[in-house]
Amino acid sequence: MKASVYYSKNDIRYEDVEEPEIGDGDMLIKMHSCGLCGTDIHKAQHQTVTGPIILGHEVSGEVVKVGKDVTRYRVGERVVTAIHVPCFNCHYCDRGFFTLCDQFKKTNLEPGGFSEFIRIPRQHVEHLTHRIINSLDWDRAAMIEPVACCLHGLKSSNIHPKDTVLVLGSGTIGLVSAQLAALKGASTVIVSDLSRFKRELALKVGVTHAIDPAKEDIETRVAEITQGKGPDVVIIAAGVSSLVSQAVNVVRRGGRIVVFSPFDKNPVVEIDAGRLFRDEISIVGTYSLTPYDMKEAIEIVEKTKSIRRT
């Protein structure tokens, strides 16, 4: 089969590789769509994985082969899956923190979605794989995984109806988070991004205000929009660590800051820590998704038009 194989930062080859073999509990999926996640770009640019390896995990495809132990799925069915599976019985899983499970990051899709076929391992078949309706196009179906990641993050934000939400960074994660915030009842959704294209796209998918940080002071502009009160929720969806300081400065009293970025460069920042006590603001990190987020994301993507491709 053909695949896009990552060897190193400047060496990605489109070449022939062996079609994966499946075990008794596995499935073979013919790929129809695979999104390019920021995590894939991060792995390639920062060389956090060793090649040769096939990346890609925002996948949708068709079942073409099932192992003898697989009874829930049949050849020809349309499915989506995700990358990491928790163990469901450790200290973290017992407390609902599935993404902190020691097994979680050890599980993977190999080969990844930038290939003609992928093997879905037994544990993924059992816990992370789901059918999708026939009317859902493949590209939109591949958005289910990032939507699930954003849902996972938004659960920490505790968005209420009529809240104001500020999203710093309007790539895929930022734009999906903004759309989900609106879907959950936020009346004002603000994004900030250097890219004119992304700002214009944000306004097309329901964002109420878009800020160009190169021309406008974010803190001043946000204060104008919120009449000096600040946003109830700030979502950081860009890899610039100084945004944490900015978020602490602008968030409303009692507000929540959700960090959805690895901050590989300059991760140490200075913040006004007094606001944590004085104004009861909170800062929380978020990573990936849980099996339960996948189910919710499928329902949203299949049943609403609120989440549009970005």
UniProtKB/TrEMBL annotation:
Q: Which domain of life is it from?
A: Bacteria
The family database entries (SUPFAM superfamilies) matched by this protein are listed as: GroES-like, NAD(P)-binding Rossmann-fold domains
The record's comment on protein family reads: Belongs to the zinc-containing alcohol dehydrogenase family.
Q: Which organism is it from?
A: Salmonella enterica subsp. enterica serovar Sanjuan
Outline the extent of the Enoyl reductase (ER) domain. 9-307
Keywords (A to Z) from UniProt: Metal-binding, Oxidoreductase, Zinc
Q: What GO MF terms are annotated? A: L-iditol 2-dehydrogenase (NAD+) activity; L-threonine 3-dehydrogenase activity; zinc ion binding
List the gene name.
Answer: tdh_3
Record's Pfam families? ADH_N, ADH_zinc_N
What is this protein's record name? Answer: Threonine 3-dehydrogenase
Q: What is its EC number?
A: 1.1.1.103, 1.1.1.14
**Which prosthetic group or cofactor does it need?**
Zn(2+)
User: What InterPro entries does its record include?
Assistant: ADH-like_C, ADH-like_N, ADH_Zn_CS, ER, GroES-like_sf, NAD(P)-bd_dom_sf, Zn_alcohol_dh
